[in-house]
Write a structure and sequence with these properties.
By secondary structure, the protein is mainly α. The chain has 5 helices and no strands. The two termini are 84 Å apart. The relative contact order is 0.04.
């Protein structure tokens, strides 16, 4: 099928040809020409419909695939949620069972330094000196511009 066959608008459609009023063969030719235009239009529309149906089928297939994936992922989420809940219950039961041992361990390894004393022997814990915070005007020895027309 050529491009000319797909395009329903022809130059002849824009300027109808004047024929004598009562010429039967001319009327038959005119009607055959219009029938050809109608057939071209129908073919063009059919091609567009076929393309739309192909796109619709592709979209439906993608949607079905996505829905299947969602169902699988939801099943995974449900399984993992059940596993998480079971582990949380097991963790709580172990904490209750070993609460006395955990408390004894915490008491044995507690920090005994008073809060006002800080160990600064490690390099990353060295105390820093005070930070000098001055304005740029004071550092550069300038004054703010109060009169834009006057240069200091």
């Amino acid at each position: 099928m050529t491009l000319g066959e797909l395009i329903p608008v022809r130059l002849g459609m824009l300027r109808p040809v004047r024929q004598p009023k009562h010429s039967a063969p001319a009327e038959v030719d005119r009607l055959r020409l219009r029938l050809g235009w109608a057939n071209d239009l129908i073919r063009t529309q059919q091609v567009q419909i076929d393309d739309a149906e192909k796109r619709n089928d592709w979209a439906a297939a993608c949607q079905a695939e996505a829905e299947e994936l969602v169902v699988k992922l939801q099943a995974d989420v449900d399984d993992l949620t059940a596993e998480r809940d079971g582990l949380a219950e097991e963790n709580a039961a172990l904490k209750r069972r070993f609460a006395a041992q955990l408390a004894a361990d915490a008491n044995a390894t507690r920090i005994t330094v008073p809060p006002m004393v800080r160990d600064t022997s490690a390099l990353e814990d060295q105390a820093t000196g005070p930070i000098d915070v001055t304005t740029l005007w004071d550092v550069l020895g300038i004054q703010p511009v109060t009169d834009p027309g006057r240069i200091h």
